[in-house]
Write a structure and sequence with these properties.
Elements lengths: L7 H5 L2 E10 L2 E11 L4 E5 L6 H8 L6 E7 L2 E2 L7 E4 L13 H7 L12 H14 L15 H13 L5 E5 L7 H16 L3 E5 L6 H4 L2 E6 L1 E7 H4 L2 H7 L6 H8 L9
Parallel strand pairs: 3-8, 3-9, 6-7, 7-8
Antiparallel strand pairs: 1-2, 1-4, 4-5, 9-10
The structure holds adenosine-5'-triphosphate (ATP).
Adenosine-5'-triphosphate binds next to helix 2.
Length: 265
């Protein structure tokens, strides 16, 4: 049962952190961050290099234990909810020499489902092929994963997340190193998941696409600078605070256009 003391907003949220601090050698790289991801949103975590974005994700996913604070998935500790969470890692963090066929990599997503033993091998293959179809990669099902291009590998990892049918999918820089066509294809898949009511949380680097791709954003630079709807938060003063005043007036004009600054937190 969810803890009755938790705020309703946290219980309803697919992903909420409270007072999250991550430290290496007693140095906080994420400091006391509160953040609630709205259900059915496509939310970006944005900040400069070294801002703590990956550390926040690693702490949230239990990959590092150097944290204090709370991480909740629908109000419960994430360890109890891992079946509801899919993760697409950064492509360069994966050993692509690992000998595995594309179809097997995708089907591995099913083994996080506690009921995997109820499916036959044929069910696994059918579900994995459906997911590969959604990312346009069914023709590559029997290829070795290491023989694919970077963009194709990224699509396969997205298919592996899709097969889990998770309520929350967390992606670490899904557009890094992919071409424009692949980026568009991935965005379309992510938006279709959002339209099905699922929640997407992405570490994202390209400030120029935040407004087009995302509806909510966390601006992070060790501390939370601002979080909320993109239209409210992705504004000049918060961007300057996040990037330490390093964005030029021309860059800012391109990013926020003529949109009026309407506050944010
Ligand atoms: N294992 C580690 N040990 C010590 N320091 C670390 C470790 N991992 C990350 N750091 C430090 O923590 C800080 C935040 O790193 P992190 O990778 O979380 O930032 P990021 O926002 O994801 O950066 P980028 O945009 O460059 O990927 C950096 O100063 C980094 O050097």
């Amino acid at each position: 049962m969810p803890d009755p003391r938790l705020a309703r907003e946290v219980i309803a949220s697919p992903f909420a952190i409270q007072g999250l601090t991550v430290s290496y050698d007693h140095r906080p790289v994420v400091h006391s961050v509160d953040f609630v991801v709205p259900p059915g949103s496509m939310t970006a975590i944005v900040g400069p290099n070294g801002a703590g974005k990956s550390s926040l994700l690693k702490a949230a996913l239990g990959i590092t234990r150097r944290l204090t604070g709370e991480v909740r998935v629908f109000g419960r500790p994430i360890e109890q909810m891992s079946r509801h969470v899919a993760f697409v890692p950064q492509r360069n963090s994966v050993d692509w020499d690992f000998p595995a066929r594309v179809i097997d990599v995708v089907a591995m997503g099913l083994f996080r489902d506690l009921r995997w033993w109820q499916f036959s091998g044929r069910d696994h293959r059918r579900r994995a092929m459906e997911s590969l179809g959604r990312v346009g990669m069914e023709a590559f099902a029997d290829r070795q994963i290491g023989q694919l291009s970077g963009g194709q590998q990224q699509r396969v990892f997205l298919a592996r997340a899709l097969v889990q049918e998770a309520d929350l999918t967390i992606l670490d820089e899904p557009f890094a190193g992919v071409d424009a066509a692949t980026e568009t294809a991935i965005v379309e898949v992510l938006k279709s998941l959002r339209d099905e009511g699922r929640t997407l949380l992405c570490v994202h680097h390209d400030l120029s696409t935040v407004r087009d791709y995302f509806d909510h954003v966390l601006l992070l630079n060790v501390r939370r600078i601002a979080a909320g709807p993109v239209a409210e938060v992705f504004v000049e003063r918060h961007l300057q605070a996040t990037y330490g005043g390093r964005l030029s007036p021309v860059q800012l004009a391109r990013l926020v256009g003529s949109a009026a600054e309407v506050g944010g937190r």
